[in-house]
Amino acid sequence: MMSIKCELAELVPQPSLSIRVITSAQDLPDVFAKGLSEIMQYLQEFKQQNAGHPYATYYNFDARNLDVEFGIPILRRFSGRDNIQASQTPGGKAITCLHVGPYSEIEPYYRALVEWIKDNGYKASGIAYEVYLNDPKSTQSEKLQTQIYEMISTSS
């Protein structure tokens, strides 16, 4: 098993357009693909630029009822429509690591983050955040890059 490099990061929130849903882990890829496509169409309709990679914020890890918000960072705050909401990416302290490979092999990276948090005296907030650095439609699964953040509580 290779070692996973974890480090402390300070995230600055960025305006975004997002969709928050409760779904199953099994349906997540389809829900993401459809939702991100809707957000991109909405941005193009109003000639808005995306300002970063697609992301997902996980508010729980219930495989049957996953509470997840996914979206696209944008340059300036912009109002949502229908299920697309004006939002922002998470901000604050987090522990992060880079996962390279299929999304299905991400779990050991989360375990490494949780261990790092425990070993270094921090407390997880219960919110995880992933940034997808390349497109699964045009990238081989073993080359997919996901920057993972486990948000930490600043209050003791």
Question: What's a concise summary of this model?
Answer:
The chain is built from 2 helices and 8 strands, in the order ββαββββαββ.
**Average pLDDT reading:** 94
Spatial strand sequence of the major β-sheet:
1-6-8-7-3-4-2-5
Helicity, as a percent range: 10-25%
Approximate strand percentage: 35-45%
Count of extended strands: 8
> In one word, what is the shape?
globular
Q: In terms of per-residue confidence, which ranges show pLDDT below 50 for 5 or more consecutive residues? A: none
SSE succession: EEHEEEEHEE
Please give the count of helices: 2
Structural class from helices and strands? Answer: alpha+beta
- Based on CA atoms alone, the radius of gyration comes out at 16 Å
Q: Characterize the largest beta sheet: strand count, sense, and whether it forms a barrel.
A: 8 strands, antiparallel
**Distance between the first and last residues' Cα:** 33 Å
